Amino acid sequence: MEKSKSPTYWGYLKVKELLSLQDGVGDGEVSADELNFIVIHQVYELWFKLVIRDLKDIVKIFDSNRVDEQFIPLTVRRLDRIITIFKLASDHFELMEQISPQDFIAFRGKLGTASGFQSFQVRLVEFLIGLDPDEMVLLGDATPLTHFRNNAKSLKGGEEVLQLIEEALNSPSLLEVIEDWLYRTPINGSSPQDSKDAVKVQGFVNEYIQCFRTEQDNLSELLITMRSGNPENIKRRFEESKDMIKAYMNAEDVPDEDRQRRQRIRAAILFIESYRSLPLMSWPQVLLDKLIELEEHLVIFRSRHARMVERMIGRRIGTGGSSGVDYLEATTKYRIFKDLWGIRTILLQAEVIPPVDNPSFYDFVSR
Ligand code: HEM
């Protein structure tokens, strides 16, 4: 290639265009602190762009009736990148804290009602992963989605943004495709289309619950022997925990029409987590762990943001109109992969779990 035909660093990265985007909304030059504020937000939006791309790619891989095993390590790598971005994004708030509260107040008025609350890319990330818009914390008397819908027309560019959000909501989420995949997971060698599947799955769950009950009884006895509280109270708490696990594994908390599916999904998570040493279960277990790690870092990101905001504006009302820090703290309770978290309560050590039927089914060689 001729030297003159080669792209330049600044041309390839469009550096000049990029550097012309930090002027804010006023006429004059922005202060160094405001520049800090703008640059940080723009960097976040660029990271979110990459996260959205990776999420869409992962969903595409899993949005199929069959996911080849070879795609699981690739998915794990993509999830690792998203996790790394969220780790960096949490640390990044430190740079925002270089602005003192008083220096922030000096230009806060320029923001008007603009707020991170309007970051449509964050909403896309949330909805692409699978956050249920109806489970979100209310801002006043409406969910963030209802706010977007109600205000889209009156905000510049609002309708375009709303369309992107609606598209994300109407496409399969990471949660949905992962749960479809979990639903199909063979349990003790049995798949949903097999005639005896329901019996086999229930058999596995019952056996496992029995092991869990034995473990709880042993623990309860131990605590009573060590006089760690009132024996009746100890016994009662362990009995409650045993009943709770049985109800959870039998999906008694979901409507009748969804029960069989939910039960099988929970059984599949339990199976993968419990038999992760089987060759065909090892990558799926790593994948489940990565999804937990992803959500863990989303929660850390939300918490870190709330701490930075508290340091910056105390308990003031936000520019978006929320209660501010109280609102942000409430959002740290969001959990998308509820059953991945839920199953952790019931996991047992390898020595006490029921043996797998047909372990050779889960060998690389036999398939
Ligand atoms: C001085 C800096 C910042 C302050 C004082 C601040 C404050 C707030 C407040 C009070 C809210 C609640 C909504 C409202 O009433 O406005 C909020 C929401 C939000 N902020 Fe910030 N923020 C700051 C920086 C950032 C940065 C750097 C990001 C990076 C992306 C960010 C992302 C968000 C997001 C995504 C929400 C919506 C949270 C949700 O609804 O779940 N903020 N911010």
Structure in words:
The protein is mostly helical and 367 residues long. The chain has a single domain (31-362), classed as Methane Monooxygenase Hydroxylase, Chain G, domain 1 (Up-down Bundle), CATH 1.20.58. Helix content is 63%, strand content 0%. The protein contains 15 helices and no strands. It has helices at 9-12, 15-19, 32-62, 71-96, 101-108, 120-129, 144-151, 158-170, 174-184, 197-225, 231-249, 256-274, 279-313, 325-331, 338-343. α10 runs antiparallel to α11 (231-249) and α13 (279-313) packs antiparallel against α14 (325-331). The radius of gyration is 25 Å and the shape is globular. It starts with 8 loop residues before the first helix and ends in a 24-residue tail after the last helix. Residues 40-41, 44, 96, 104, 115-117, 119, 122, 144, 305, 309, 312-313, 318-322, 324, 327-328, 331 line the site of protoporphyrin IX containing FE.
